[in-house]
Design goal:
The protein has 331 residues and is of the alpha/beta class. Helix content is 24%, strand content 25%. It is built from 9 helices and 15 strands. It starts with a strand and ends with a strand. 43% of the residues are buried.
Length: 331
């Protein structure tokens, strides 16, 4: 049987036990040209909260009665004449939160689990790593000697953004919640400084660590932290809008920046980025990221939990802050 996580209600605010249910259905059989994948791990990402809302976005919302969308990795157990995939291939794609998935192979790619553990292909060598890579290099356009501020700096994307910026010769300051996370990004990841938004005056701390201002602000949080960062921009600064986790469960109106005119005064730019726009370039990025990993220039951390039945409490760790690095569920 195939256990599947099915969306049954659209939540207002934080998802709860009434948002999804687990169903058991027969493992699908492939039609000609199709494959069946036995999934090992699924990726849990803040973007999943946005996919629950019935409103226009970069992807259509998950429909009521549908399997919850997610990135995943697993192995092909049946191939009915698919020319690109054979039984035994390890593949990464969008299989959803279920134990088995049926596909024609579109938007799936083969990976080698002998070169890296499966969870790594959902973190640094997967969507979070690609988001960090293209977000800071292509959208942020960092240059050696510039200053970079990152919110959500201990998370799956922010932690990689900071390490790439250090590789490129930037001064890097991360904003994170709690002493443990701040110590992690400074002592293990090599950030120049860390700001604990739970105990520090963030504006004063930014001015202390970056007295001449911010060249690039990589935003994973939104809300008040975005406003504070905009107050500290340098001339021609770039603001990368990757996420706004502080606003995803806001049942009222989303809080946007009050002081956007700082962009005008400083001739700055603010640009959103969606990693799927760079899909055709993932291979190039993965090669460079793999090289940095093998040389120890980038460190990767995965927080792996087990059991599709534990999806909800594991997913909520994204919003409680009770995790570091990439959150993954073994199903």
């Amino acid at each position: 049987m195939n256990k599947q996580l099915i969306l049954i209600n659209r939540p207002e605010g934080i998802p709860d036990e009434n948002t999804w249910k687990i169903e058991e259905n027969t493992i699908p059989e492939p039609a000609p040209g199709e494959i069946v994948i036995k999934q090992e791990y699924v990726s849990l990402d803040p973007a999943m909260r946005g996919w629950l809302n019935d409103k226009k976005s970069y992807l259509p919302p998950v429909g009521i009665g549908e399997v919850m969308r997610s990135g995943s990795i697993g192995k092909v157990i049946k191939s009915n004449g698919n020319k690109n995939f054979q039984e035994g291939d390890c593949v990464v794609g969008w299989g959803g939160v279920q134990q088995y998935t049926l596909s024609d192979g579109e938007r799936w790619r083969k990976v080698d689990p002998s070169l890296a553990p499966m969870p790594l292909y959902l973190s640094t060598l997967g969507m979070p790593g690609m988001t960090a890579y293209f977000g800071i290099l292509d959208v942020g356009k960092i240059k050696e000697g510039e200053t970079v501020l990152i919110s959500g700096a201990a998370g799956a994307v922010g932690s990689i953004v900071g390490q790439i910026a250090k590789i490129k010769g930037c001064k890097v300051v991360g904003i994170a919640g709690g002493e443990k996370k701040c110590t992690y990004i400074k002592e293990e990841l090599g950030f120049d400084a860390a700001i604990d938004y739970k105990t520090e005056d963030v504006d004063k701390a930014i001015k202390s660590y970056l007295p001449d201002g911010i060249d690039v602000y990589f935003d994973n949080v939104g809300g008040e932290l975005l406003d504070i960062a905009l107050d500290n921009l340098r001339m021609y600064a770039r603001v990368v809008i990757c996420g706004a986790i502080s606003q995803y469960n806001n049942p009222d109106s989303v809080k946007g920046p009050d002081n956007y005119l700082s962009l005008l005064v400083n001739r700055g730019t603010m640009q959103g980025m969606i990693v799927m726009d760079y899909e055709e370039h993932y291979g190039k990025a993965a090669i460079e990221m793999s090289g940095w990993l093998s040389k120890g220039k980038i460190k990767s951390r995965e927080a792996v939990y087990e059991g599709i039945e534990n999806f909800l409490p594991t997913f909520l760790r994204l919003f409680s802050g009770d995790k570091m690095g990439k959150l993954i569920l073994k199903i």
